[in-house]
Fold these 3 entries.
Entry 1:
Amino acid sequence: MNKKERAIVILQRLRKRYPAPKTALNWANPWQLLVATVLAAQCTDQRVNQVTPEFFRKWPDVKALAQADLADVEAVIRSTGFYRNKAKNLVAAAQKICTEFNGQVPETMEELVTLPGVARKTANIVLSNAFGKNEGIAVDTHVKRLSFRLGLTTSKNPNIIEKDLMVLFPKKDWGLVNHVLVLFGREICTARQQKCGECELSDICPKLGLGG
């Protein structure tokens, strides 16, 4: 079985395991998803979901955040970690969206990555989930780990991993690939413990990096 064949089998099996996958972040519109995704960097989705209700109560839309006091934003998101940088980027992103994109979150990769604090991973998550557009594959820590273990890439660089995966999976499934790998990485093939005895991919997994 070559790499592309293995990739398709992996997707087929994980699709059966997760028939209706979606992001664990709570959001109601593209702006809320962008904020939640930025806050989720180096933080759990559970923690972000505890913070965002108060965040959106205080600043219900892009315009409100663009006028926010930085110290107030820092105080609300403090528990998500790296709060000073996240607050600075979110307020600056809101200001740019208001001045350059008429208050609307842009719908292209080229425009999204011009926003402060938004790189390809965040842009891919927003595009796929909020707009139904697949311009790439979001590579977070779970996707990075599983892609290597499953022999789908030899790189540790997220941008190279994304390119490797885009060649292996159909474009229509790029958003799905992120969802199922994240869920599987949280439940079965975690960083600290690999439940190979419960894994439906065990027979085709090269288990790279696990030793023994």
Entry 2:
Amino acid sequence: MPVTALVSAKSSGVTTSALALTLASGRPSLLAECDPAGGTIRAGLLEGEAGAGYGLYHLAAAERTSQEALAQAFASHLWDMDEAGHRKLLLGLTDPAQAASLSRTWPSLSQMLHVLAEAGLDVVIDAGRIAFNAGELHPTLTPAPLIHQADLVLLVVRGTEQSLTLARHIIKPLRNELTDRGNGPGALGLLLIEDGPNRAHQVAEALETPVLAALPHDPATAAYLTNGGRQPRGYSRSPLLLHARTATEQLEAVASRRQIQQQYPPQKTSPQLAGVLHRLNAKRERGRRV
């Protein structure tokens, strides 16, 4: 299953989208809340149920002890989001000042997330707002290794001119970053929140990047995932969760195709063979016209 990192140019619903994908997946799933600016799920959807003793920050101290300690800490800090334990959550930072301590933890955390993906989990990373420094991902303000190694990196955008304007400024450096240090430019795609006048094909054309999945503008469900409280009526069949279920399948298919392409890259065709193929195609076209 893929490891999918969600990012944004500015607040565009990354955390809400990540929650929707995780909760709606038809497979066991894990959401890692890795926004260096701090997590919001603890005080939002969970309404403070999980204390500061749980979460990402504690992995940094464990990593300085040993890889085994890190693995044990990772397992013990996962929060069950459903009674069956099929939906897991790694809660984010309670204080952005803690982000600097994670710089050496990100690579090891990325490896663990990929191991879980290989075991069959859908892994979603809330990587927060993208920040650059001298043309590269900022080492403190972004979880750069998680983004570099993700199977898919989705820039979350809305169909508004404001959102597209902000996205235009980061789409090229983000693509360059994945080309030079990441999983390749093909890992980059858009997750469209259908809020605003621009449709998927218009957004893809404006940002010169494919829309790999789309989620509807569903204020009631989004408000619940953001703030907690009482579940809205028809929550389990809400447009957001239904479309998120479809989106997870679409993303898994895209990631699978990319994996096959990387394992079996297209072979270069010799000029001689290319000429033969051209003549055969030309002959077949003449036959069709006759």
Entry 3:
Amino acid sequence: MANLRDIRNRISSVNNTQQITRAMKMVAAAKLRKAQNRMTSMRPYATKLKEVVSRLGSSSDAKNPLLRKPDEIDRVLLLVVGSDKGLCGGFNNNLFKVVERTIANDYSEHHKNGTLDLITIGRKATVYFKKREYNIVDKYPGFFDNLEYDLTAEIMEHVIKKYTSEYYDKVLISFNEFKTVIAQNRRVLQVLPVDPASLKKDENEDESLKTSDYLYEPDSSSILDEILPVYVIMQLWRAVLESNASEQGARMAAMDNATENAKELEEELTLKYNQARQSAITTEISEIVSGAQALEES
């Protein structure tokens, strides 16, 4: 009977877990809708801003410091956008593996020489890279507890100052780009220096854009000086919004899988419980029959 009690306790525990994972899935779904709305409302602005920067940078002879292409890459900064909470499957680990692979392939010498710096956004990224003794110059645990543009702008303004003072020669951002609710693209993108030529390659081929002619007031260089910092800040803002939506989608999928697994485990335990109970009943009946026969024989 002790075995039956243990199985019954396990069934109760699994059932409670199933209720928790189901509730977490519903919370993640609600947060996902909000995150998707913020992300989709930002995308048209980011796309148009990218187009303007591409056109201005390609047509202007401006010597903006954010367009500076150093002869040698002496110091690199990598911003890693993770999450603050877990229970979202391989959301963080898959991105961190891509980051480490990128570092190993392209920036191994910088890492060995101590000229590779990291800024970690989210508790998981901070803990992961701190344990592996990467040079973290700034960290933002709890960033997604109150996701605001102002803090994002503050981070990138500090990075821009470091780049324009020629402390850094290259700045990259790594994040999970939202693809679908159950899938993300792991991205490592160069933010600085801004390369108008590569931006132009990324643009969608639109005949109307090719034939359009623009007049700039006061001039293209002045507009570029104003718009480039905004564009760089928008790259991080886009990354954190994409990452936030991806995180909620990953958590929703993970909790859905956990709920299904708990349901299957509960069914297996119920079957074992019924089998054990049937076996106990059969044993008791056999003992009663055997006792009755012994009494008759005596």
